[in-house]
Design a protein that fits this description.
Blueprint: H1 9-13, E1 31-36, E2 39-43, E3 49-54, H2 57-60, H3 69-79, H4 93-105, E4 110-116, H5 119-136, E5 144-148, H6 157-161, E6 181-183, E7 190-192, E8 195-197, H7 200-217, E9 221-226, E10 230-231, E11 237-238, H8 241-254, E12 257-261, H9 276-279, E13 285-288, E14 300-305, H10 306-313, H11 330-345, H12 348-363, E15 372-378, E16 381-386, H13 392-401, E17 404-405, E18 412-415, H14 423-441
Parallel strand pairs: 3-17, 5-6, 5-9, 9-12, 12-13
Antiparallel strand pairs: 1-2, 2-3, 4-14, 7-8, 10-11, 13-14, 15-16, 16-18
Helix pairs in contact: 3-11, 4-11, 5-10, 7-8, 12-14, 13-14
Length: 442
Amino acid sequence: MPKVRTPSLVERDRGLLWHPYAPLDGPAPYAVTSASGTRLHLQAADGTNFEVVDAMSSWWSAVHGYRHPELDAALSRQAGQFSHVMFGGLTHQPAVELAERLVDLAPDGLAHVFLADSGSVSVEVALKLAVQYQRATGLPRRTRFLALRGSYHGDTFAAMSVCDPVDGMHAEFPRMVAEQLFLPRPPQARLVNGELLSDPHEVHAWIAVLEDTVHRHREELAAIIVEPVLQGAGGMHIYAPECVRAARRVASEHGLLLILDEIATGFGRTGKLFAAEWAAVTPDIMCVGKALTGGYLTLAAMLCTRAVALAVTDSPLRALLHGPTFMGNPLACAVAVASLQLLESSGWQQQVAALESGLHAALAPAAGLSSVAHVRVLGGVGVIQLNVPVDVAAVTRAAVEHGVWVRPFRDLVYTMPPYVSSAGDVAAIGAGLCTAVARVHG
């Protein structure tokens, strides 16, 4: 009898599973066979095995690396008690402790917490809350939002409506996505001696547009929503903190709420615990996620001020109208508490400062490549921007062959390494990215 070959995991996946932003018959994914620390063990479609440094922190979430003993232990302890209970009418220690810790860590004034399933859901909840707040304060016509070009806030419908209307996904869903208002992308900033500096004339012009837009549309706007200082999936764009401060001021002047989306930037990624600190502002509403559980489980949170919460509580509805089945999942909350404890005890400031210094040196050679338009670093974020669209499959393959896992997009080859990455890891990431770009794009 001829031996029947067993299909590989990659072959079984192909055509069966959707992957993010990819066709069913797209390039074959790599199979992960194990992960530990900053390393992933991968297997390609042809059976070739690779050990790679994870330059992505699993889309910016696995800041403590993989199989961390303290996070593993927290997950195991909670599983030994109970894995999930409904949050309607019930509460539990992990959820209460997590909310207390988030309020302690967040910018002063944020005092109430809604636990959500994911970052996109936390944005949905934030937008709902802003509309409920305006209605509760007697302004029911205020139902629209002012966002930024180049923004990304998630893939669900309300979140998608405040993403970039041209480079985002609006056009694919006509009449299903609400039409919002958008400001130009804020002026670019560069990091100089620990300060984010921009052209003051460009900043002044942008603020004038902000003020004029809000003045003209103040009767219909509920809130301004921005990713503070760093726009993530919209282009890894670092911009002037003055723009965030101006958004805070203008929102307050006109009775609008300021929503800061810190899902990608929160918990130290930009060199501050929250990117709002670059602008020294407190939002009315803040969303966090990604690194919240150290990449172990999906969880996000929306925080708001007492004034916002009390307005809703004093309204006829009294409740915030959202309630996911897995809201406040005990496993996720327990791991999040452990992750936040680990963040503080491990000295995230020193870790991120070391990443920033290492990425400056490791990515510097890319600036000399003919295909590279710009190289920039902020905290634990390093970006190589090309002057052509990136060949995602080819650059990914070249980086893997050089020992680095990276997931480029648009014209960007970027990295957000785990905070626990060593100097050798960061050097390897830089060498892998520079080599991959040079090999594929020159």
